[in-house]
Amino acid sequence: MAGLTQVITVLVCTVYMLVGPLLIMSNKYLLTVSHFRYPIMLTTMHQTTSALCCAVLVRVFRLVPLTHDVSWRVWRTNIFLVGLTTTAALCTGNASYMYLTVAFVEILKGFTP
Predict the structure, then answer these.
(1) Could you list the pLDDT tens digit for every one of the 113 residues in the chain?
(2) How far is CA 35 from CA 26, 27, 78, 93, in A?
(3) Whole-prediction pTM value?
(4) Which candidate, 23, 16, 47, places its Cα nearest to that of 97?
(5) Over the Cα atoms of the chain, what is R_g?
(6) Which of 17, 19, 90, 109 is within CB 3.0–4.6 Å of 43 for a Cys-Cys bond?
(7) Which of 93, 83, 82, 105 is nearest to 42 (CA)?
């Protein structure tokens, strides 16, 4: 059983390491070569797809157990604010691909804590 867990872990890490650069290159292609000048729309599509995939994994396949309900107060004061700032960071990050090269953007990301 431990061998199967290790194989799955290596597989998930490999997929994660491949998807990140592919997403960066596809964003750069869409924003510059294809002249799709809407970085906020692109971020919205990414976030919506991610939310739908997570909902399917949690609600349909039950990969993560739902242990407690979240009140509207907690959702409004914690989850919403984190989501809003994350979305703002993603929008500005995607917008930078319209004006800078991928290499320069990645160098700038290296300076973030």
Answers:
(1) 678 889 988 998 999 899 988 988 998 999 999 999 998 898 889 889 988 998 898 889 888 888 878 889 988 888 899 988 988 888 888 888 889 898 898 888 888 77
(2) 12, 11, 36, 17
(3) 0.68
(4) 23
(5) 17
(6) 90
(7) 93
